[in-house]
Amino acid sequence: MRHTILLSLLLGSACGFAASSSLAQTSAIQASPEKSAYLQDGSGPVVRSQDGLCWRSGYWDAKDAVPGCDGELAPPVMKAIAPALAAGPAIASDQPKEPDLVAQCQFTLSSDSIFSFGKATLSKSAKQEIDKKTIEKLADCSGAKVLLVTGYTDHLGTDAYNRKLSMRRAASVASYLKSKGISNRIETNGAGAAEPIVTCSNKLSIKKSIVCLAPNRRVVIKMQ
């Protein structure tokens, strides 16, 4: 069957023109002779103009496009995308962290070591212990403004008695701190048997219970 071949130099879109021109001086573009809609020379490659444009036949349409001839009409080439760079290790700040004020400025005094059982009067040895465990360390808490002194008891006795005793013990410690020149504002609190540290069996004798519950009897000094 004879076909009238209309040879025309078709300029595609600007993008297609650029793509074709860039390939004009490279390797020959091949198209299938049986179904090609391009003009081909005797050896098979598509005939191109001096500008590198492919010569199309009069019955060419978009489905006849071949890579290298028709720019946008040729199948797109997927570009490899480099994987995202892994985040580098965090750089430690040279700025020193603020000290934990509560951790450095909280002191616990055992009531049994500074008070006789059921009493709230500080002995000479008790004052020496406060000097050693508390006053010498308060210099590290110079940024704090308030000194909170809280007394605690065990659960033996009534709640009213324990709260009163814990308040009296807190007041005794606060008074001694003031006498040693502590200029911070001091607040006192009596917590009674609240916030126990240990729990002992209720089957113990009174004497053994007193020994077992010793950690609960304490005075806590906290800078705020």
Automatic annotation (TrEMBL):
<dbReference type="InterPro" id="IPR050330">
    <property type="entry name" value="Bact_OuterMem_StrucFunc"/>
</dbReference>
<feature type="domain" description="OmpA-like">
    <location>
        <begin position="102"/>
        <end position="224"/>
    </location>
</feature>
<dbReference type="InterPro" id="IPR006664">
    <property type="entry name" value="OMP_bac"/>
</dbReference>
<keyword id="KW-0472">Membrane</keyword>
<keyword id="KW-0998">Cell outer membrane</keyword>
<dbReference type="InterPro" id="IPR036737">
    <property type="entry name" value="OmpA-like_sf"/>
</dbReference>
<dbReference type="GO" id="GO:0009279">
    <property type="term" value="C:cell outer membrane"/>
</dbReference>
<protein>
    <submittedName>
        <fullName>OmpA family protein</fullName>
    </submittedName>
</protein>
<dbReference type="InterPro" id="IPR006665">
    <property type="entry name" value="OmpA-like"/>
</dbReference>
<dbReference type="Pfam" id="PF00691">
    <property type="entry name" value="OmpA"/>
</dbReference>
<feature type="signal peptide">
    <location>
        <begin position="1"/>
        <end position="24"/>
    </location>
</feature>
<keyword id="KW-0732">Signal</keyword>
